[in-house]
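user:
I keep going back and forth on a fold encoding question. Separate attempts, laid side by side, tell us more than any discussion would. Would you put together a sequence-and-structure record for a protein of your own picking? Write it directly below this note and I will take it from there.

assistant:
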Amino acid sequence: MQYQDRVSSLLASGYECLKNADLGSASKAFDQAMHDDFDNPEVLFAMKCAQFWNGILKELGGLETALGKGDRIVARWKSFQDFLSRIPGDFEKALYAFKRLAFGLALDFYLSVPDEVKTSLGAEFDFRLGRCRKALGDYETALQHLERAAKFKKDDARYMAELADCQALSGEQRISKTLFREAFFIAPDKIDLELLESDMIRKLIQRTEESRKELKELAEWIPVYGELSGLFGLPRELTPSERSRLTSSMFQLENDIRENPSLEQSLKPRLLNRYFWLLRHYEATGAEQAKLEKTLQKIRLLDENIFKQYES
C-alpha cells in the first residue's frame, strides 16, 4: 500500500509539472514511479507519452520562429492521437495533463510572436489563439478569438468547426449544431477532426467510424450521419444565391458520377449531404410534397441503406 501511495503521488506530481509546461520534471517523476512499480499500467502509459513529447520538443530546436514552433506542436498533437491508438491504456488525468502541456507550450510560442507578424496574420492568428485557449479550457477567451476570426472568414470550414466545438463546450448546443452543419457542408475535408473535443461531435465521429469503413472519406460521411442521427437535422431556408449554388453543386456531382461510375463511392457522401440540405430547405419553406418525394427518391437510388435509415 505504501508503494501504491508513493506511485500515485509521483504520478500526480508529474501531471502538475506537465500542466506547468515542465516536461523534464514530469519525466523524472514518472521514472521514479516506474522504479517503484514497473508493471503499473498508468505509469507505463505516462512514460510512453512523455517519451513521445520529449521527441517533439527536440524537433523544435530545428525551427527558427515562434510561430513555426507553435504550429509544429499543434500538428504533433494530431499525430499524438494516432500514437495513443497504438498503445494500451486510456487514463483521463494523464491525457488532460499532456493536453495542457502541448497547448500551453503552443500558446506561449504564439504569444511571443512579433507584433508585426501577429498583425499580418490577422484572423489566422486569432484562430490559432482561440484553438489553444479552447484546448486549455478557457472557453470564454477562446470564443472571443474564434468569433473574431470567423467574422472575417465566414466561409472557412476550419474556423466554423472550431467555433462550433467551443460553443458546444460552453453549453450552447443549438448554436453549435448549426455551425457544425454549415462547416461540414462547406469543406468537411478541411476540418481537423482530431482537434474537436465536445461530446456531441466526438460521438458523431465515432458513430461514423463504426458505420463506414472507408476512412479515406470519413469527414465526408460525418454530415450524412449527423443528419441521420438528428444532430444536423435543422430546417433552414436557403437564400436564392445559396439555393443556386446548391443546385449547381448537385448537378455537377450527379454528372460526375454518371460519366465516371468509379467516382461514386468517393462522391456519394457529398451528394447525399446536398440532398439533405435541399430537403431541409423544402421543410423550412413548406414546399409541396412532390418536391420532397423527388429528392427522397434520389437518395434511395444513390444509397438504399441510407434512405432506409433516414425514413426509419
Q: What stands out?
A: The longest helix spans residues 264-285. Residues 301 and 307 are 9 Å apart (CA to CA). Residues 240-311 form one domain. The chain has three domains: 1-112, 114-183, 240-311.
